[in-house]
Design a protein that fits this description.
- There is one protein chain.
- Helices cover about 80% and strands about 0% of the residues.
- It contains 17 helices and no strands.
- The longest helix has about 35 residues, at about 125-155.
- The N and C termini lie far apart (about 75 Å).
- It is found in: Membrane.
- Keywords: Membrane, Transmembrane, Transmembrane helix.
- This is Probable G-protein coupled receptor 148.
C-alpha cells in the first residue's frame, strides 16, 4: 500500500508541480519546508480531485461494458467461423474482424482498469506493452470500419462487378494488411511513452490510460503536438467513413429502399451514423481539451475528469453497442444468440383466415 501511494504521489506530484500550482508556496518558505508543504497540500488536492465513490463509479463502466460484449461477441464469432457459407461472405468476415477488435480492446482496457483500481505496480515495459496492444486493437477496428464502408459502397454502386472487385480471397488479404498496419501504427506512441518515462525523474508505476492522457496534456509541447497529430489522423479516417455513407445515400436516394418510416435502409444508416458520432466524440473532446490547454489553460481537476470520462465511457461505449446494433441486425446471427440463451425470435402476427 505504501509503494502504491508513493507511486501515485510521484506521478501526480510531477503533474502538480509542473502545472505551476505550487509556485506561490516556494516564494514564502525555504526549500525543505516548501517541498514538505507542497506534498501535504498535494495529498489534500489528490483526495479532492478524485473522490473514492466517483472514481469507483467510473472504473465500473469498463467492467460492465466487458460483461456486455462478452455475452454476445463470442457467440457471433463462433457462428460466423463455424458456418461455411458465412465464411465465404465479405460482410460477415469484416463484421467478425471488427467485433474481434472490439472484444480484445475492451478486454485489455478492462485489465488495465482493474490493475489501476487494485494499485498494481507495473514496470514501464509492461505498461508499454499493454498500451501497445490497446493501440493495435483500436487501430485495427478503425481500419475495419473503413473496409466495411468500402464493401457496402461496392455492393451498392457496382453490384455487377462486386464479386470480381472484392472477392473473399481479397478480403482475407485486406484483413491481414489491416492487422499488419495496426501493428506498426502504435509503435510511435509507445516510443514516446518510453522516452517520457526515461526522461522523467519519477518513474510511473501505475499504468492507467486516463492518467497518461493527463500527463501528456500537461507535459512538454512535443507530446501534445504528437497527440494532436494522432487525433487529427483518426478524425480524418472517421470523416472519410462519414463521406462514404453520405455518397451512398445520395447515390441511392431515388431508389425504393428509403420508402417508409421504418425501412431497413433507414435503420441501417441511422445505426452507422450513431456509432460514427459516438466514435468521433472522444477524439473531438480530446482535441478541444488540447486546444484549450494550449490557449489559456484549463483547470487541473477538469483535465483529470475529462480524461476519465473519455477513456472509461466515451471510448468503450461505441464498442459495446457495436455487437448489439451491427451483429444482431443480421437474422442468422441474432437467431443464434437468442437460441443460445433460449429466447424466442419475435415472429410477425398472422391474422386468422375468415
Amino acid at each position: 500500500a505504501e509503494a502504491t501511494f508513493l507511486s501515485l504521489l510521484c506521478t501526480f506530484g510531477t503533474w502538480y508541480n509542473s502545472s505551476g500550482s505550487a509556485e506561490g508556496s516556494s516564494k514564502t518558505s525555504n526549500t525543505t519546508n516548501s517541498s514538505t508543504g507542497s506534498l501535504e497540500r498535494f495529498t489534500v488536492e489528490w483526495q479532492h480531485f478524485m473522490p473514492p465513490w466517483q472514481m469507483s463509479l467510473l472504473q465500473i463502466c469498463p467492467i460492465l461494458c466487458f460483461l456486455a460484449v462478452l455475452l454476445v461477441i463470442p457467440l457471433i464469432l463462433v457462428k460466423v467461423f463455424s458456418n461455411p457459407r458465412m465464411r465465404q461472405e465479405t460482410r460477415y468476415l469484416l463484421l467478425a474482424n471488427a467485433l474481434l477488435c472490439d472484444l480484445m480492446f475492451i478486454s485489455f482496457y478492462m485489465l488495465t482498469t482493474c490493475f489501476s483500481a487494485a494499485g498494481v505496480l507495473m514496470s514501464k515495459e509492461a505498461c508499454a506493452s499493454l498500451l501497445y496492444f490497446l493501440g493495435v486493437f483500436y487501430g485495427a477496428g478503425v481500419l475495419t470500419t473503413k473496409a466495411m464502408v468500402l464493401d457496402t459502397s461496392l455492393a451498392v454502386l457496382l453490384p455487377l462487378r462486386y464479386l470480381s472487385l472484392w472477392p473473399v480471397s481479397r478480403t482475407k488479404k485486406a484483413i491481414l494488411m489491416m492487422w499488419l498496419s495496426s501493428l506498426l501504427l502504435p509503435a510511435a506512441s509507445v516510443g514516446l511513452f518510453l522516452w517520457y518515462q526515461s526522461s522523467s525523474p519519477c518513474m510511473m508505476q501505475i499504468c492507467s490510460l486516463p492518467l497518461l492522457l493527463v500527463l501528456t496534456v500537461n507535459s512538454s509541447r512535443p507530446l501534445r503536438v504528437s497527440l494532436l497529430v494522432a487525433l487529427t489522423c483518426l478524425l480524418v479516417c472517421l470523416l472519410l467513413v462519414f463521406c462514404g455513407y453520405v455518397i451512398l445515400y445520395y447515390k441511392t436516394r431515388h431508389s425504393g429502399i428509403w420508402r417508409g418510416c421504418f425501412s431497413r435502409a433507414k435503420g441501417t444508416f441511422l445505426i452507422h451514423y450513431l456509432l460514427l458520432f459516438l466514435s468521433c466524440c472522444p477524439a473531438l473532446v480530446l482535441v478541444i481539451e488540447l486546444l484549450l490547454y494550449t490557449g489559456n489553460g484549463i483547470d487541473l481537476r477538469t483535465d483529470l475528469w475529462v480524461s476519465l470520462v473519455i477513456c472509461n465511457i466515451l471510448v468503450v461505449l461505441p464498442k459495446t453497442l457495436c455487437p448489439y446494433m451491427y451483429g444482431l441486425r443480421y437474422r442468422d446471427l441474432s437467431k443464434a444468440v437468442l437460441a443460445f440463451y433460449r429466447l424466442k425470435w419475435p415472429s410477425p402476427a398472422v391474422s386468422p383466415l375468415t
